[in-house]
Amino acid sequence: MDDPVLVEVARGALVESRHRGAVAVSDADGRLAFALGDVTAPVFPRSAVKALQALVLFETGAADVYSLNEEELALACASHSGEPGHVAAVTRMLARAGLETSALACGAHWPASEAAARELARVGAPSALHNNCSGKHAGFLCDACAMGADPAGYWQPEHPVQRQVHAVLEDLTGAVLSDDRRGIDGCSVPTWAIPLQNLAHAFAKFATGHRLSPARARATERLRQACARKPWYVAGTGRFCTEIMQLFGTRVFVKTGAEGVYCGALPEQGLGIAIKCDDGASRASQAIMAALIARFLPLSEAERAALQAYIHPILLNWNRFDVGSLRVTDAI
Amino acid sequence: MDDPVLVEVARGALVESRHRGAVAVSDADGRLAFALGDVTAPVFPRSAVKALQALVLFETGAADVYSLNEEELALACASHSGEPGHVAAVTRMLARAGLETSALACGAHWPASEAAARELARVGAPSALHNNCSGKHAGFLCDACAMGADPAGYWQPEHPVQRQVHAVLEDLTGAVLSDDRRGIDGCSVPTWAIPLQNLAHAFAKFATGHRLSPARARATERLRQACARKPWYVAGTGRFCTEIMQLFGTRVFVKTGAEGVYCGALPEQGLGIAIKCDDGASRASQAIMAALIARFLPLSEAERAALQAYIHPILLNWNRFDVGSLRVTDAI
Fold this sequence. Notes:
In chain A, 40% of the residues lie in helices and 19% in strands. By secondary structure, chain A is of the alpha+beta class. In chain A, the strands form three sheets. In chain A, strands 1, 2, 3, 8, 9, 10, 11 and 12 form an eight-stranded antiparallel β-sheet that branches. In chain A, strands 4-7 form a two-stranded antiparallel ribbon. A two-stranded antiparallel ribbon of chain A has the order 5-6. In chain A, β1 and β2 form a beta hairpin. The longest helix of chain A has 16 residues, at 214-229.
């Protein structure tokens, strides 16, 4: 089945590029409220499921043993921009478990924030702390220590931490995450391919706590509240995830993943959302998420106007001339 | 008509993302040697036609009046990486016409080269010289001066330089480039949408000089030779355009354009090539170009192996683990 065109990129009077994709919106019973394209094909969710991976912080007791605060819980769910505030908070998070930067196995890359990268270039080079996944990795290390497991190799599929992540993902998504569905993520931890309808179902459970044990339902609430109250720690300055949660607070949870994935939750509507842009373009998946929020959430005029800037952004060139726009199609 | 999937991006055992696109390969008489997808829809060629725009340097006499050398001719055809050698050469090029950086209207951006950008961040900020199009703009300024036109506004559609660019593009492509096909490029000059079959035809003429006046045929030869001899100036360190022309010399001309466009010429085969990836992904259009070169050019074993690294590159994560690969489909 061919996925439909969900986003067009216009230049002048013509469409210059097109993005196809698939979308699933589910309630906590697994009933689809909306679907476009193939929602049954397995999709690597990449970083879009960090909040589900972070549930293990509560199952292992790490969140309480190390008294992780809301900034740190948000960082465990984050693909952060490597700004100085992110780096400092991950350093503190590691210290809570008595660990140092050298324990992180995510690899180093320059900050995703251009400004932070330029600033860092003036004085040094990036470490694993600047990796957008360092908060998640610090969380995995806290998990290992709280479990009494050797933190070395915490990123490998057979390590107790990743086995528990696997169990949580299988339970929430209802998908069988067999080894032939397993890939290696950018930060070296396992990523399992999961159909969009299952991802949307998992995020509806995450949104509501329905069909979860009381303890796990409470854990989803703590993570949602942490991200809603400290959204800068989930992404960073000027980033969509941060700006959307700044705008909507606890009414919307959103999280990006590499290769055009977005997951989200609308707690008041009891809905979970999962998006995959076929070609991996995040400019498209972000616009689709904005359009889905506008479709399912009751909005004030100001909120609708704020979302419109993401649904139909004007594209400026290096001289800041208006040269075109990106727009979500009528399919959504 | 739906364009076919031409590139798949695999992670582990699964396809993670897919890129659709269209391809035209033409001879100088406009006969298609190969075509996939819709080759009749207008496509903004963006920077992929800089070598055709640079033909105006010979029509205005600027190339000879200002004694532009091969580095400077290659830069006029370039989307360079903003490395120090590129910036120095554009500065010299402007000086030949008695102009300074302030004459450039392309706008400033950080160097496309990560290393050059980090280095620059340690000492300052980018100017218009670092814009990947600054060589083309320096060429347009040389054109204006050689024509005796006011260089101010050289980037606007009604300026004599852009009118001559328009005439050259219409003549080579055989397409009618009406105002409703005109967009504004990233560097503010006009870009006209042109069907892939016409772009491929134009590059077959550029490859061979067939169906061109003797003077224009000689101009195409000088530009092809300049790019083949100074390929670093057409792109930069580690870039596909540079590495391909380093590998094949005068046997292959290739040039990338924004939003997933690639144009190329195979002079010995008398063929021109034009590629558009529907979603604008350059990772895909580059791999498609490599596959087309492998299909149409007789290759040594070493050349075939070198191309294979672009047709089917292994993807490494931040820890340099092999996590997947990009691969051109059997359609090509």
